[in-house]
Amino acid sequence: MEYIKKVDDALIKKLEEFHGALVPGLIIGAYMVELAYERLDAAEFVDAVVESRKCIADSVQLMTKCTVGNGWLKVYDWGIFAITLYDKRRKDGIRVCLDESKIPKDTITYEWFFRKVGKHSHPEVNKELLELKKTILSYEPVTVNIVRQKSPPIQCCEVCGTPFPSDGKNICPACRADKYYTIKLL
Ligand SMILES: [Zn+2]
């Protein structure tokens, strides 16, 4: 398992390939991971939390190998620039956030952060972020309260027949919610 704990040109290139484009959140996320690893007390088995499902999540997935799929990454869809890396056994870790009070007000990065400028500013923001590095981040030691749920048994939906993890109801989540698809008649 390859962890990437430092930001360098090779990593930036990898992030760009992984995400599809180099955007500011990827760079911020990369420095967040670097800072968290520096402050983590030699944790061997790291789990991660991201407080946004956007770009920073991809930096965390690429660098830590904690992914949505392997269950070591928990994603909160809050739109907040913050991550936590923690020791999965001891549950203690480091939460890193983007600290807007540390962003120099005369930068395009400041404008971008408060959504005053659009995507066209990304190349300029990226350039600034690669110079600002970790200076715009803050961190705090934390204890994580996340408890992993045991996998429930599988049951079949009374409406559509789809097998789904039992949650005390007889109808699957897709049938309970508005379906995101309709079946085409051929
Ligand atoms: Zn169903």
Protein traits:
186 residues; alpha+beta; 60s Ribosomal Protein L30, Chain: A; 2 domains; two-stranded antiparallel ribbon; 7 strands; binds zinc ion
Beta percentage is 15-25%
Number of helices: 6
CATH class of the largest domain: Alpha Beta
Shape: globular
Q: What is the number of beta strands?
A: 7
**Biggest beta-sheet profile:** 5 strands, mixed
List ligands, each type once: zinc ion
Poorly predicted residue ranges: none
CATH topology of the largest domain: 60s Ribosomal Protein L30, Chain: A
The whole-number mean of residue pLDDT values reads 93
The neighbouring-strand order within the major sheet is 2-1-3-4-5
The number of domains is 2
Describe the 3D structure.
The chain is α+β, with helices and mostly antiparallel strands and 186 residues long. The protein folds into two domains: 9-143, 60s Ribosomal Protein L30, Chain: A; 149-186, no CATH class. 31% of the residues lie in helices and 18% in strands. It has helices at 9-19, 24-39, 55-64, 108-113, 122-132, 173-176; strands at residues 46-50, 73-75, 82-87, 92-98, 137-143, 154-156, 163-165. The strands form two sheets. The chain has a five-stranded mixed beta sheet with strand order 2-1-3-4-5, covered by helices on one side. A two-stranded antiparallel ribbon has the order 6-7. Strand 1, helix 3 and strand 2 (73-75) form a beta-alpha-beta unit. The radius of gyration is 20 Å and the shape is globular. The mean pLDDT is 93. The structure holds zinc ion. Zinc ion (ZN) binds at residues 157, 159-160, 162, 171-172, 174-175.
